[in-house]
Amino acid sequence: ANVKGVVVAEGTIGGDGRLGNLRIIKSLHPSCDQEALRLLREGPRWQPAKRDGRTLDEPVRVRIRFGK
User: Fold this and answer.
1) Fewest CB within 10 A of the end CB: N or C in the chain?
2) Do 66 and 28 form a contact (C-beta atoms < 8 A)?
């Protein structure tokens, strides 16, 4: 399909840099939503937040654009 637009997902960056608790908060198309979640799950680890030398879980919101 020639779908264009933005999927918005949110989740939590864990202390290990992996994204967890992912969910779509702005849907575009079911296949785009699934691809956005796949990219976030399988992508590189994120830099976790730190306070006083300890890593913290931190919420994050990500926009993924499909099409031109």
Assistant:
1) C
2) yes
